[in-house]
């Protein structure tokens, strides 16, 4: 399917939602719906972004408002709505509020865009993707969260800087949860096909890992009032393009594990997948080191425990 034949709905017109809409305009998507509880904000951003189409030679139809009905018929829905991170606030602490917001949005998606792919960006994204999967009742191959693509970009950036090479030559992959328990996989990092282990010391690798693991918090501390927006938006748009392609792309995406790597079946966690117009075609079970497997299971346990704790509290309230 061509981009100009596709409707994308974005719930949340904040920094990241607006950036996603802008990138979709540049890529000439046919229809872009921007939805926010602050309808004036969504309308204003839609007007501002849409008027750029004249100067960039784009014909996307973009509109905004607070009525969820404008997501009707979307082939892809992105959820960025919810309260954001603040300095000192862990992603998991956002769960109680944002889970309710995501569930309400998913009820609208289920009614108005029943065939859509759903991409969750709202934090804690891995846990909320699981929430969205349960709330929509959609097949698991159509519900996912962004996380690994963003973290992999951060890792690649630091590898390039520390090794003094072009970012275009670096490939990296981060698995696990999107947060402090992520798993940067050293054996999958390369520089123009050369294993990064041959070009960077253990110390340099650990420096890159630390900057990646706490990269979101570092940006948040600089902004103080909000987190990163531009790179997360590019990561989501990369997923959207993969979801339109008949040729699968191998990407680190937060998906239902289905028991891969011996993980709990229902946990949503960053894994290497083949992503295409069919959605998540397959989880690739790659030969990870024993330490990496242990860390991946530890990350899954953190996510599963947080989800189960939240659900138990909901049941008892």
TrEMBL record:
What UniProt keywords apply to this chain's record, in alphabetical order?
A: NAD, Oxidoreductase
Among its keywords, does the record have NAD? yes
**Gene Ontology terms describing biological process:** lactate metabolic process
Q: Which residues bind NAD(+)?
A: 12-18, 36, 98
Name this polypeptide is given: Malate dehydrogenase (NAD)
| InterPro entries tied to this protein | L-lactate/malate_DH (IPR001557), Lactate/malate_DH_C (IPR022383), Lactate/malate_DH_N (IPR001236), Lactate_DH/Glyco_Ohase_4_C (IPR015955), NAD(P)-bd_dom_sf (IPR036291)
Cite a single GO MF annotation: L-lactate dehydrogenase (NAD+) activity
Domain Lactate/malate dehydrogenase C-terminal, chain residue ranges per copy:
150-308
Q: Where is the Lactate/malate dehydrogenase N-terminal domain?
A: 6-144
Q: Which Pfam families match?
A: Ldh_1_C, Ldh_1_N
Active site (record annotation) = 178 (proton acceptor)
Amino-acid positions noted as binding substrate in the UniProt annotation, renumbered to this chain: 85, 91, 123, 154
Q: Which PANTHER family match?
A: L-2-HYDROXYCARBOXYLATE DEHYDROGENASE (NAD(P)(+)), L-LACTATE DEHYDROGENASE
| Family membership | Belongs to the LDH/MDH superfamily. LDH family.
